[in-house]
């Protein structure tokens, strides 16, 4: 026998409390959801900033093969090849804006540099990006496997960049490799952008080794070199040396801005990596770099890194941009025996400042150059490079 009864005040209070609790919970939950929902808020953005022939394809692959990374190699190649005219300085804002859009996974920015109805295969070095060879971009390679570029090239072409964009959104890290920045100032708006969490890895290499490697790839670099020197037509006879001088100057500028006197929004977001340290002890160096950007090492990657740095191949002139399995440390010393001493002297002259700053000893004679047990790479003190970015949970809060 159910009879209607007026609820007691105690029951009313209880009900009210419950309603209040529920309202509070829903609004709190909603806010959490909102905070988490734009993927850009949780993403880490890494700019691998380097120069030609400095091992950036290798370090790029170290990111590209990571299962949490969406990687593109040199998207700004398109800016330089399509716009060309104004030279490096005039193009840097277009480069910067393209990089910003790609970090946000907005690949429509590529339309400006592509023919109508283009395929993903028209993106520069697209098949070197493991993410473009894995779901959802392509069914070929499971995300946690090492991808094989030639297979990817055969099987993963598609129309447009919709799937690439979808893929980009599905990763925690977007990593872009660029050799087309010569300063950091143009990146300040990206560093201040609360929806980006940008880390800059500045990869440098002994300029004498760079020169040696450039000599073997002159043809492949001739157009870029003209843009670096901001001139048209034929390279002047001392063109290579002048390009090296520009590159060395840019290393000084970037390192001074990033490490010696960084503005607040850059503090803790810049890390110098020397190629020589990378090949001397690849696993340790790469673990440190992963740590800096919040990536975990995996067993698969460890094995692959060992293989790729302990091979026997020499690396050929035919494909100047290919990374082959070879003994990385031997390769890094090749200039000691093959670069003429006269050239070594010229480079040391134009790059002295950068070499001193970055810890590369000058040689005083051909004998010193060829004496391979003489270590010309000064050990850096580790504490200079251990700044950490505040933990990811601080969301959009910037360091400093
Ligand atoms: C573009 O990709 C499709 C596969 O989705 C292929 O059938 C077509 O031939 C490609 N077009 C070009 C121009 O490569």
UniProtKB/TrEMBL annotation:
The chain crosses the membrane at residues 12-30. Its main location: Golgi. It is a single-pass type II membrane protein. One of its GO terms (biological process) is N-acetylglucosamine metabolic process. Residues 45-357 form the Sulfotransferase domain. Signal peptide: none annotated. GO terms for molecular function: N-acetylglucosamine 6-O-sulfotransferase activity. It holds the Pfam family Sulfotransfer_1. One of its GO terms (cellular component) is Golgi membrane. It is found in: Golgi apparatus membrane. Its EC number is 2.8.2.-. InterPro entries: Carbohydrate_sulfotransferase, Gal/GlcNAc/GalNAc_ST, P-loop_NTPase, Sulfotransferase_dom. Keywords: Carbohydrate metabolism, Glycoprotein, Golgi apparatus, Membrane, Signal-anchor, Transferase, Transmembrane, Transmembrane helix. It is an enzyme of class 2 (transferase). Belongs to the sulfotransferase 1 family. Gal/GlcNAc/GalNAc subfamily. This is Sulfotransferase.
């Amino acid at each position: 026998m159910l009879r209607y009864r007026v609820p007691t005040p105690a029951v009313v209070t209880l009900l009210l409390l419950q309603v209040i609790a529920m309202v509070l919970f829903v609004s709190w939950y909603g806010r959490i959801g909102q905070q988490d929902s734009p993927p850009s808020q949780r993403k880490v953005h890494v700019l691998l900033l380097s120069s030609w022939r400095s091992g950036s394809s290798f370090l790029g692959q170290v990111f590209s093969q990571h299962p949490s990374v969406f990687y593109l190699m040199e998207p700004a190649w398109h800016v330089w090849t399509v716009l060309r005219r104004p030279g490096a300085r005039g193009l840097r804002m277009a480069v910067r804006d393209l990089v910003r859009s790609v970090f946000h996974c907005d690949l429509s920015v590529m339309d400006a540099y592509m023919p109508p109805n283009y395929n993903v295969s028209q993106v520069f070095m697209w098949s070197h990006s493991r993410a473009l060879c894995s779901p959802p971009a392509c069914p070929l390679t499971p995300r946690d496997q090492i991808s094989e570029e030639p297979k990817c090239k055969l099987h993963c072409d598609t129309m447009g960049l919709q799937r690439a964009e979808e893929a980009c959104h599905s990763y925690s890290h977007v990593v872009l490799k660029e050799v087309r920045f010569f300063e950091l100032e143009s990146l300040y708006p990206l560093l201040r952008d609360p929806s980006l969490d940008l880390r800059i890895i500045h990869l440098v290499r002994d300029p004498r080794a760079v020169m040696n490697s450039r000599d073997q790839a002159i043809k492949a670099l001739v157009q870029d070199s003209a843009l670096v020197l901001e001139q048209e037509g034929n390279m002047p006879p001392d063109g290579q040396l002048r390009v090296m001088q520009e590159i060395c100057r840019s290393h000084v500028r970037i390192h001074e801005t990033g490490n010696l006197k960084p503005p607040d929004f850059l503090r803790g977001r810049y890390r110098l990596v020397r190629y020589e340290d990378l090949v001397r002890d690849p696993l340790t160096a790469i673990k440190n770099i992963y740590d800096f950007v919040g990536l975990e090492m995996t067993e698969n990657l460890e094995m692959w890194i060992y293989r790729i740095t302990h091979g026997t191949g020499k690396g050929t002139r035919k494909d100047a941009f290919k990374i082959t399995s070879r003994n990385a440390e031997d390769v890094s010393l090749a200039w000691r025996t093959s670069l003429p001493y006269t050239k070594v002297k010229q480079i040391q002259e134009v790059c002295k400042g950068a070499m001193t700053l970055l810890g590369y000893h000058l040689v005083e004679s051909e004998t010193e150059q060829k004496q391979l047990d003489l270590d010309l790479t000064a050990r850096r003190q580790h504490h200079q490079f251990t700044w950490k970015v505040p933990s990811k949970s601080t969301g959009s809060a910037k360091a400093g």
